[in-house]
């Protein structure tokens, strides 16, 4: 990609009503457009980051046998009446709308009912279980406060998975498999060290705890207590002596922290399957309840968390695996020799499928470098008169101060390894 053909530009101004530093930075760098409070559009660079996060999530969901599907956003009222959720006062953040003839619809905020309804004719025998399905989709919630940029959207991107099992024992195996996949995902995103599996309230249907995946950060809305040695946390909402005993944790080893919920996993028992008539027949032909779980990951919230966690005073800082381009490439002077050499390297990197954005503008070097920093591109490669004379390439990492020089072969080897 050449910067001259990119549809967005960096800018110094941000909407005055944008208070969240993740959204401010992403807007300045041209990754995000603010439509209104809690609603953002992903511009080309922003979409590239979202897609990279999704790919990591997809790979890990597929690796444990998850099958991807895509449910609809518009949902019939009747489905939610069956489980008494349509008028549930606890679900206070639902967008609802109407057809021309007055029929009421719900706008998707979670999908337990629709998923069970769609799969109940396929899951009828013990031979059909266990199964898990997931989707990556926009969700809509009429959140009261939407002041945290991508951390709390009214329209946001979620990965939600649903598991189906013959009994609690099979459910527990699936559940732990999914938890392990979640921990791998946070690791691959570069958030592993600060993400804690955290006990949280189980909700209304089971007496088990649910698990939240909490990323320790001062910008978090949640208060949790962590045991750093055991790498587990306890949400404040279930923090009491009785529960600590059940969890095998000791008050003295726990430290209070602020954290952002970047995912959660729930035991649902058979609340939704029973209500919507999903049953299976066991070996003896007996009709039995299907045990379910549901599992969310906030894809767009993760982008906000990653933005804030890694950025510095110069702008965005993407980890290699999430950057829209691994390298930024440019020349210093408007001279044929430099431009030719830069274009040649641009072609070579492109044909090797190494992500590169080529700054082909004739602006001042300081301005170009400031853009490279703001955009958060991990590796800056510069061609100048000295590098041409020495037949070398000048490299600077976004997170380091030093300049490093490579010859052509060393450069390619280095970039190929980085891009793996
Ligand atoms: P929270 O406690 O933050 O309100 P939740 O418990 O309602 O979230 P779920 O409904 O289980 O969350 O959604 C799964 C995941 O989706 C959450 O763990 C979170 O990462 C993300 N998420 C939830 N609400 C939002 C939102 N309004 N904006 C962005 N991400 C969200
Ligand atoms: Mg929550």
Write the layout of secondary structure elements.
Blueprint: H1 21-28, E1 32-36, E2 39-42, H2 44-63, E3 67-68, E4 74-76, H3 77-82, E5 96-98, E6 104-107, H4 112-119, E7 131-140, E8 155-165, H5 168-188, E9 195-200, E10 210-216, E11 222-227, E12 232-235, H6 241-247, E13 255-269, H7 271-276, E14 279-281, E15 287-289, E16 291-298, H8 299-310, E17 327-331, H9 336-351, E18 356-359, H10 365-375, E19 379-383, H11 385-389, E20 393-397, E21 404-406, H12 408-419
Parallel strand pairs: 3-7, 9-12, 17-18, 17-19
Antiparallel strand pairs: 1-2, 4-6, 5-6, 7-8, 8-16, 9-10, 10-13, 11-12, 11-13, 13-16, 14-15, 19-20, 20-21
Adenosine-5'-triphosphate binds at residues 110, 141, 143, 152-153, 156, 158, 261-264, 296, 298, 300-301.
- State the fourth-level CATH superfamily of the largest domain: Bira Bifunctional Protein, Domain 2
Q: What hetero molecules are bound to the protein chains?
A: adenosine-5'-triphosphate, magnesium ion
Gross morphology: elongated
Q: What do the pLDDT scores average to?
A: 96
The rounded distance between the terminal residues' Cα atoms is: 20 Å
CATH class of the largest domain: Alpha Beta
**Unreliable residue runs:** none
| CATH topology-level name of the largest domain | BirA Bifunctional Protein, domain 2
The appropriate CATH architecture of the largest domain is 2-Layer Sandwich
Strand order of the largest sheet: 9-10-13-11-12
Count the beta strands: 21
Number of helices: 12
Total discrete domains: 2
Specify Rg, calculated over alpha carbons. Answer: 25 Å
Residue share in helices?
Answer: 25-40%
**Largest sheet composition:** 5 strands, mixed, barrel
Q: Classify the secondary structure makeup into a structural class.
A: alpha+beta
- Beta-strand percent range: 25-35%
């Amino acid at each position: 990609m050449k910067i001259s053909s990119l549809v967005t530009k960096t800018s110094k101004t941000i909407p005055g009503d944008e208070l969240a530093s993740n959204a401010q930075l992403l807007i300045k760098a041209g990754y995000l457009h603010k439509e209104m409070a809690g609603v953002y559009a992903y511009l080309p660079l922003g979409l590239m980051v979202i897609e990279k996060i999704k790919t990591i999530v997809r790979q890990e969901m597929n690796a444990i046998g998850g099958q991807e599907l895509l449910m609809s956003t518009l949902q019939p009222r009747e489905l939610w009446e069956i489980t008494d959720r349509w008028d549930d006062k606890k679900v206070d953040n639902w967008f609802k709308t109407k057809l021309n003839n007055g029929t009421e619809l719900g706008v998707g905020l979670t999908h337990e009912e629709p998923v069970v309804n769609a799969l109940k004719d396929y899951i009828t025998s013990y031979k059909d279980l266990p199964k898990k399905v997931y989707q990556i989709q926009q969700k809509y919630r009429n959140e009261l406060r939407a002041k945290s940029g991508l951390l709390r959207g009214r329209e946001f991107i979620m990965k939600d998975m649903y598991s189906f099992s013959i009994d609690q024992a099979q459910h527990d195996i699936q559940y732990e498999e999914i938890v392990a996949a979640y921990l791998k995902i946070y690791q691959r995103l570069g958030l592993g060290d600060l993400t804690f599996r955290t006990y949280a309230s189980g909700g209304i249907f089971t007496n088990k705890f649910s698990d939240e995946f909490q990323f320790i950060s001062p910008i978090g809305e949640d208060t949790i207590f962590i045991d750093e040695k055991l790498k587990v946390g306890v949400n404040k909402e279930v923090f009491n002596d009785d529960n600590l005993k059940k969890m095998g944790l000791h008050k003295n080893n726990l430290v209070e922290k602020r954290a952002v919920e970047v995912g959660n996993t729930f035991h649902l028992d058979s609340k939704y399957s029973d209500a919507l008539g999903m049953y299976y027949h066991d070996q003896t032909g007996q009709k039995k309840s299907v045990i379910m779980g549901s599992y969310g990951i906030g894809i767009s919230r993760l982008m906000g968390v990653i933005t804030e966690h890694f950025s510095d005073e110069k702008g965005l800082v993407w980890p290699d695996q999430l950057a829209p381009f691994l390298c930024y490439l440019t020349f210093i002077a408007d001279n044929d020799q430099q431009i030719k050499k830069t274009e040649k390297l641009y072609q070579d990197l492109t044909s090797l499928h190494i992500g590169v954005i080529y700054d082909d503008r004739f602006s001042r070097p300081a301005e170009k470098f400031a853009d490279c920093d703001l955009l958060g591109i991990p590796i800056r490669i510069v061609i100048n008169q000295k590098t041409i004379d020495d037949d070398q390439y000048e490299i600077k990492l976004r997170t380091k101060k030093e300049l490093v020089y490579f010859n052509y072969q060393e450069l390619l080897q280095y970039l190929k390894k980085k891009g793996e």
